[in-house]
Specification:
homotrimer; 152 residues; alpha+beta; 60s Ribosomal Protein L30, Chain: A; 5-stranded mixed sheet; two-stranded antiparallel ribbon; 30% helix; globular
Chain lengths: 152, 152, 152
């Protein structure tokens, strides 16, 4: 199936890929691997659902924020390779959840990005994942993700 | 030396590879690289030594838990490539230690996995490592590790 | 431009690559990728600017410490490939900032390594970056970084 057609079918228009907030770039290709910088839940230049899970942000909103960060990651991938149908498979998702002490629902929050990747890439979207709880996050974002993909 | 023979010599029977706790898979191969999802100290379906280092878990028990997580990582590798003798070398170990404020013995805890990798793969087990202290961990695990390997 | 000439021009003499503090190695090459272990701000065997950003360490000193960790990472790369002109490009910088609750200036701290990489490798130094705040760090270092590079 075509990732680009899936985006249309899902009614998703990818955002402009967010710009870096320091002396780095937002994606790099090495061989057939592409990896992104840490992606935050920016939407229209506004940080969505800022704060800590388990304190200011519900798990449901954390899921939504992680999906938004996932859309930004897809925009970075597309900026790199031009067309998401060039993705052979998603390799790895790194998920860092900004959370209060005792929060345990990291997997549910990160499914916001994992579900998006599966909807867009189907079987080729299957990825390994790392999930960590982080007490302090740049710009007070509630989540930060990184996507690694294998491309043509 | 043969990694499979070393397992026998060490009296190690690998567990069933643990299943994911979210919308992801437990290993991915891209080219000659295999990488695992975050592995936790599951043994027979029971989380071993849950809690924080420096609070509920001693450094000695953290070492044991990290070895158990390492056995799970080996089980994932074997599920991917069929035979651990296909491993050319271990590349990278990511070690995230669930710990109380002020804990400093992350290296000793993570040696539980590093020592296992060296016992099984000998020179081919030499890897780079990253060690971080994390205040909140999915499922209250005391440690989470990721293994990257280069395979035939 | 030559990375080695840039080092000379900048008056930089690379340190001896720091040795590991556990059962691992400090760099690994897999295919055309080299990745380092977590690098700390060691200088002449002394940890520079230990403690937490936002508590014991200023953002300015954190920047300096991150540059020192970056020099150690360059020393590891050089130990691996012999000559920094063999670097085709820097791929990824992982930056873990040891910080007090509420600290937000992770990007400014990590620019200490990013700026160094750009000065030495110029366009080939452009990398993706991940920035996380960590409450407990091995050896009380204020920052830990990892560098991934693509080499000839």
């Amino acid at each position: 199936m075509s990732a680009e057609l899936n985006l249309q079918r899902l009614g998703i228009t990818l955002p402009e890929p967010p710009q870096p907030v320091g002396a780095y770039v937002t994606w790099v290709r090495t061989g057939n691997l592409v990896t992104t910088s840490g992606q935050l839940p920016w939407k229209g230049g506004v940080m969505q659902h800022p704060g800590r899970l388990g304190e200011h942000v519900t798990t449901e909103d954390g899921y939504k924020a992680t999906r938004i960060a996932g859309l930004n990651a897809l925009a970075q991938l597309k900026a790199c390779i031009g067309n998401l149908d060039q993705v052979r498979r998603i390799v790895r998702l790194e998920g860092y959840v900004h959370c209060a002490p005792g929060f345990r629902e990291h997997p549910q929050v990160l499914d916001g990005a994992s579900d998006l990747l599966m909807q867009v890439f189907e079987e080729r979207g299957r990825h390994v994942r790392i999930a960590l709880g982080i007490p302090d996050m740049p710009l007070n974002a509630c989540v930060q993700i990184v996507v690694w993909a294998e491309v043509d």
